[in-house]
Write a structure and sequence with these properties.
It is a single chain. By secondary structure, this protein is mostly helical. The protein has two domains: 63 residues, Glutaredoxin; 115 residues, Glutathione S-transferase Yfyf (Class Pi), Chain A, domain 2 (Up-down Bundle), CATH 1.20.1050. Strands 1-2 form a two-stranded antiparallel sheet. β1 and β2 form a beta hairpin. The protein is globular, with a radius of gyration of 17 Å. The mean pLDDT is 95.
Length: 189
């Protein structure tokens, strides 16, 4: 969300919420986002949660940039890759994060279930080659820069190191991440 806002020069006021100490489980936060997850966007009384929805909303504020697709086919490709990400790799990454970090460190529950972790790694092995092939010969996932790059890029930029899974063999993904990291705001947004 912050990276796309930086790309579009949309000012955001960040309110840090630390789920590890229950800040996303407070009654005021749950009133805005009943899932108790981040991010949540609040603007003049309008509240929106779920990253794809927020990204598409921000992109709609700068329609001349066409980051959610300029025409119906481009918009459909954006939606296709959002659905692919949410239902595939992101769900696998979330499963690993829940087992390694969230359950043991946020909810004080047992984690590290080897079956869940193995299944999540198998799903990543299934889905990441799809993204790698899609990026072959392209600078960005759907061709031109889009909200899809801002949905997937930040997670693949950080999750492998934190959750200890390897994406090094996916040359096109790594080249794409380098292009994203080269953006002047990428490290600071």
């Amino acid at each position: 969300m912050r990276l796309l806002a930086a790309e579009l020069d949309i000012p955001l006021h960040k309110v840090p919420r630390d789920p590890r100490i229950g800040e996303t489980r407070s009654s005021d936060y749950l009133a805005k986002n009943p899932n108790g997850r981040i991010p949540t966007l609040e603007e003049d009384g309008f509240v929106l949660w779920e990253s794809p929805a927020i990204l598409k909303y921000l992109a709609a504020k700068r329609p001349e940039r066409a980051l959610a697709g300029a025409e119906p086919k481009a918009q459909a490709l954006v939606d296709q890759w959002i659905c692919w990400w949410v239902g595939g790799p992101e769900a696998a990454i979330d499963a690993i994060a829940w087992e390694l970090l969230i359950k043991p460190k946020v909810f004080n529950q047992p984690g590290n279930d080897p079956g869940i972790i193995a299944d999540a790694h198998a799903r990543l092995e299934r889905f990441l080659p799809v993204l790698d092939r899609q990026l072959e010969g392209r600078d960005y996932i759907v061709g031109p820069l889009s909200v899809v790059d801002f949905l997937i890029g930040p997670r693949l930029d950080t999750a492998p190191a934190i959750l200890k899974f390897d994406i090094s063999r996916h040359e096109n993904i790594n080249a794409w991440l380098e292009r994203l990291r080269a953006k002047p705001y990428w490290q600071d947004a």
